[in-house]
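Quick log. Single chain, no ligands specified.
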Amino acid sequence: MRAQFVLSEIGVGLRRNLTMTFAVIVSVGLSLALFGGSLLMSDQVTQMKGYWYDKVNVSIYLCNKSDAKSDPACAQGAVTTEQKEQIKTDLDKMSVVDEVLYESQDQAYKHYKEQFGDSPLAASITPDQMPESYRVKLKDPEKYQVITSAFNGRAGVQQVADQKGTLDNLFTLLGYLNWAARGVMFVMLVVALMLIVNTVRVSAFSRRRETGIMRLVGASGFYIQAPFIAEAAVAGLIGGTIACTSLILGQQFVIEGGVTLSEKLPLINFVGWDAVLTKLPLILAASLLMPALAAFFTLRKYLKV
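-> predicted structure:
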């Protein structure tokens, strides 16, 4: 097969169906950009889980004098020195506990003012209204229920709060957003495939006279199909290049530069360039193979070769 003939036919086909080729490029680019984005979102959620679950604390809030009047869990009165010492001793004996930190009422009040100092309610809060607490770091965050079952309801304990529940809700929301992105990606891929099939059909119909002559002179099926398959592959590869460029620009100007989310949201451990670069070959391979296979199976029906 002469390469010059195939390349010339590719150029002719792309020019003849310029509008539809442009639609294929855009749809493939958008769908694969969403595909790469959904893969990066999965990596982001996994990385955030590993980062935040390692920092999860179980907080054991102790009863104070104001709680003794209003909270049924503190009906026995404010926590005593003996009860605090016993809680600390029991925590130190537990194999799941990695570290125990005590937070006094003054420290709790200081942290509260740092977080909610601008709210109207903060002005009416006094240090004696804040609860003392033990912040427990676990060796395995999944075993927070061991702490809850051991200390919830104990005399002097107002509440056992686990941060993992809040994080689970956040990661569940991120998971839903990721699946929504995948759903849009799937719809865009279907649209792209339909456009590729239609473009190949139109191209084959517009060149039915040439292909008929080639069949009469004994050209092989692959020789006839190759220009059409290559047209679709080239259009898809251009779309894949656009998708890769979008991911690179997003990482460069949104995460690390320009908007710099990594600086404005320091609590989020964003994925780095290694995660982005490993997705690019997959996107390029998909952009090349998906249109080529769609064109191949379409031509088997419409060219009858």
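The mean pLDDT is 76.
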